[in-house]
Amino acid sequence: MKYNIAVIPGDGIGPEIIREAKKVLDTVGKKYGHQFCYTEVLMGGVSIDATGVPLTEEALETAKKSDSVLLGAVGGHVGQSNWYSLPPNQRPEAGLLQLRKGLELFANLRPALLFEELKAACPLRDEIIREGFDFVVVRELTGGLYFGERKTYEENGLRKAYDTLAYDEEEIRRIAKWGFEIARKRKKKVCSVDKANVIDTSRLWRQVVKEVSADYPDVELSDMLVDNCAMQLVKNPGQFDVILTENMFGDILSDEASMVTGSIGMLSSASLGNSKLGLYEPSHGSAPDIAGQNKANPIATILSAAMMLRYSFDLEEEAAAVETAVQKVLKKEYRTVDILSEGKKLVGTDKMGDLIAEEI
Amino acid sequence: MKYNIAVIPGDGIGPEIIREAKKVLDTVGKKYGHQFCYTEVLMGGVSIDATGVPLTEEALETAKKSDSVLLGAVGGHVGQSNWYSLPPNQRPEAGLLQLRKGLELFANLRPALLFEELKAACPLRDEIIREGFDFVVVRELTGGLYFGERKTYEENGLRKAYDTLAYDEEEIRRIAKWGFEIARKRKKKVCSVDKANVIDTSRLWRQVVKEVSADYPDVELSDMLVDNCAMQLVKNPGQFDVILTENMFGDILSDEASMVTGSIGMLSSASLGNSKLGLYEPSHGSAPDIAGQNKANPIATILSAAMMLRYSFDLEEEAAAVETAVQKVLKKEYRTVDILSEGKKLVGTDKMGDLIAEEI
Ligand SMILES: CC(C)[C@H](C(=O)O)[C@@H](O)C(=O)O
Ligand SMILES: CC(C)[C@H](C(=O)O)[C@@H](O)C(=O)O
């Protein structure tokens, strides 16, 4: 089979980690007889530099016509880059928001798990993580405060601003279904996170999630307040299977969850909609301080490519092959600098890609 | 001097911990020659049971006329208590929101610190907390999503809801000043947390905080995105001095911060406005599961009373005496069950109050 992949290297370490992911994909292609065709697309700071905007119409069109999108990272140093003297909706990150909205990718999946070999990197004490943990944050991605009406204005000589957090039942229902579907393939537990003791959208959220749960009697549903969830992620991350939440809460909690694993350089993410077309990217940022130095960990991007094989192309065996290859390389004690510990073998970005490709 | 304190025992463990705080205050009164007069005020579930609403007009008036308010905790088990079959704005927690707004307490201060004696309870690894940490979350408390216009409605057969996150420059300026004033008495660092890469209120927030900082050249200001802050609290809490943020972000981050200390039963909080009148309460909740069992840790409430002495009554020496007494009792290895570790002496709520009072 032939698959058309729109590839967005983006900024910072983006090009390096994307190069390694393509290396691994090509190896999978050779072994299993698939053809992966890449079309490079500009987004973020590099797009601003080349075209003046963080995402052109044509770039979005190319992404739309592809079978799937693989992204490195976008953005630079806020204090140091000219990109940040532009108005907010013309900055690198705005390109990402436009892409999510343009492709109608309303479901963001971010696995947070403890890699057995990397337990020592976890900031939590051994007693807490003895049993390990493995959960997914399912975040609504095209609604809420991110896309509601907003305005900055002056009234009676006073500067004022507002943002709107809005949801309708359809938006909640479709993401809730994703949450339950994923839980069904895992430990069958959904924890829906909201602030229903204060805001209306959270109360509607809680109600609709409950309604959806009626179609999933095999999946256990619980509700948790967002402030409590921020605590529980530190106290006992092992209690979670699927955390289902709205856009802004999901932004905060999924980043907290990544850090709790201690190995953010290992964490993949997928943004999906109603079609097979998805956007796959590492959970970490563009790390401009180490860009071009062959230091970046390409594993999160490689595992994102594996998610692409699984969710967009239904190539379960191939996805598993990539994941197993990563496990093997870790077992053999190869590490990029971000996950290095005493006695382990330090390798650069390109070598890590080579090693994983070799295991396939 | 005579001080009139409105005391709100509230629900769950509230009455027990308030009893111990009064015990300590009375000892301070005797030693330093002050008279603390208590007027009991109903709020939360007990108020619903007695009056039908979580906070009556009279209760609010009594609080307004007092010199300061000391609160235990409000709320019960959501699944088990009848209070939660009421509409959201009539539930126990709504009383607290009405009190904050009614007393115009726009500044919430929540210290998060590692007690030397309780380091073992911290969920973070020793390497991370070796140097300890001691910071304060300064949270805006009467604006944002908590008090913006909200609505649940039906349109074209679809249920919809929205909440509004609104701020004006005055609201931001007055809380920012609090942040800088507090930093001035501490390590002189303010980290202002927002989501300026996405929402308008955060951009106004960032701008106004920057303007305010001009009046505090001795205080260092940095900005951080809320998702990053949720990570940094786990990765390296020692980097913070004062975290300044809006209402909802503050709700999430201050709870995460409490959990990161590992001893939430020790953490006090103060809600302040433009007058000397403040609301002081422990950071933890009402813990209905252990209510009435003499198990609750009264220290957070006792330390909240100390904050009251300091901020509302300007009794710095007396406040320090309470804090020192708490330290001494910990040094002598007395512990309530929530902070118990091997070899330490277990005591109940009342005994812990006695011990602290004796040290004064
Ligand atoms: C870059 C930014 C706009 C984005 C977000 O807030 O969604 C990022 O933090 C993320 O989580 O993917
Ligand atoms: C009880 C609830 C309304 C309250 C809040 O969200 O402000 C609580 O979580 C807090 O932080 O004091």
TrEMBL record, chains A, B:
Pathway: Amino-acid biosynthesis; L-leucine biosynthesis; L-leucine from 3-methyl-2-oxobutanoate: step 3/4
Cofactor binding mode and count: Binds 1 Mg(2+) or Mn(2+) ion per subunit.
Positions annotated to bind substrate: R100, R110, R139, D227
Binding site for Mg(2+): D227, D251, D255
SUPFAM superfamilies: Isocitrate/Isopropylmalate dehydrogenase-like
Entry EC number(s): 1.1.1.85
Pfam family, one: Iso_dh
Presence of keyword Translocase: no
GO biological process, one term: L-leucine biosynthetic process
Marked site: Important for catalysis: Y146, K195
GO CC term, one of those recorded: cytosol
Residues annotated to bind NAD(+): G285, S286, A287, P288, D289, I290, A291, G292, Q293, N294, K295, A296, N297
Stored PROSITE patterns: IDH_IMDH
Subcellular location: Cytoplasm
Broad class of the protein's primary localization: cytoplasm
Keywords: Amino-acid biosynthesis, Branched-chain amino acid biosynthesis, Cytoplasm, Leucine biosynthesis, Magnesium, Manganese, Metal-binding, NAD, Oxidoreductase
Protein's job: Catalyzes the oxidation of 3-carboxy-2-hydroxy-4-methylpentanoate (3-isopropylmalate) to 3-carboxy-4-methyl-2-oxopentanoate. The product decarboxylates to 4-methyl-2 oxopentanoate.
Record text on subunit structure and interactions: Homodimer.
PANTHER family hit by this protein: 3-ISOPROPYLMALATE DEHYDROGENASE (PTHR42979:SF1)
HAMAP family recorded: LeuB_type1 (MF_01033)
Identification of the protein by name: 3-isopropylmalate dehydrogenase
Protein species of origin: Anaerocolumna cellulosilytica
Gene from which the chain derives: leuB
